[in-house]
Amino acid sequence: EGAKIILADRNQEEGAANAESINQQGGEAIFSPMDLMHKDEVATTHRLALERFGTVDILVNCAGVLVNGSFLSLTDADFDIVLSTNLRGTIWTMQEIIPTMAANGGGSIVNLASISAIWPESNAYFYGASKAAVAKLSKDVAREFASQGIRINTLLPGPTDTPLMPDFMRNDPERLAAFTRSTTVLGRLCQPADIAYGAVYLASDEAAMITGQQLVIDAGVTISND
To answer: Which one from 125, 127, 197, 201 is the annotated catalytic residue?
Structure first.
């Protein structure tokens, strides 16, 4: 919809390829290597955005780390990497970008959480806790900065066909089909584009009166047992 984009990712090859794909399709995008475990890299990416585009109107926080395991098997290292990326990374990016948005008269932030934040799920304990924290944090920060024209909302995706989908399921079509039938009322998994459409909407002027809210995109998983 005409946005100029800076993509930030610790996977430099994939991030650069995605930026090039956007440019080849007529958009304008640049790539900045960034690991949310390192606060200085967040600041560097912000500076690059300002140098190239002059300001930041939209921030989409979509990084995520998932460590599966039984509750008693999870370690301090598991906790650190999941919470540092999913929660602290979201905090750092918002703290970095919000002053720029405030100085510019406003902006829109879309934080990706997960239905794990509101839906009981085995073996994803730290992930669910981190995403629940992101959802709560987003509401609280939205309230603080609403008077400065900054809207903050949260997307809660359900099972989505991304690399976070376990390999044992992705590589077993029958198992994946059975999982899909048993968990979604629409009978299909979300695709990355389904989540992206939600982010575009929340970031757009069409959502100008929406802030502090949670948008669930899950093919009906959270109503499957109602």
So the answer is: 127
Q: Is residue 54 part of a domain?
A: no
State how far the Cα of 180 lies from the Cα of 117, in Å rounded to an integer: 20
* 127 given a catalytic annotation: yes
Short-list 79, 112, 76, 82, CA closest to 94: 112
Q: For residue 124, what are the domain limits?
A: 59-223
Angle, CA of 216, 219 and 220, to the nearest 5° = 75
Instruction: Tell whether pTM > 0.90.
Output: yes
Does residue 30 fall inside a structural domain?
no
Contact 82, 126 (CB under 8 A): yes
Which pLDDT tens digits describe the chain residue by residue (226 residues)?
Answer: 789 999 999 999 999 999 999 999 999 999 999 999 999 999 999 999 999 999 999 999 999 999 999 999 999 999 999 999 999 999 999 999 999 999 999 999 999 999 999 998 888 999 999 999 999 999 999 999 999 999 999 999 998 887 767 665 667 778 878 888 888 999 888 999 999 999 999 999 999 999 999 999 999 999 987 5
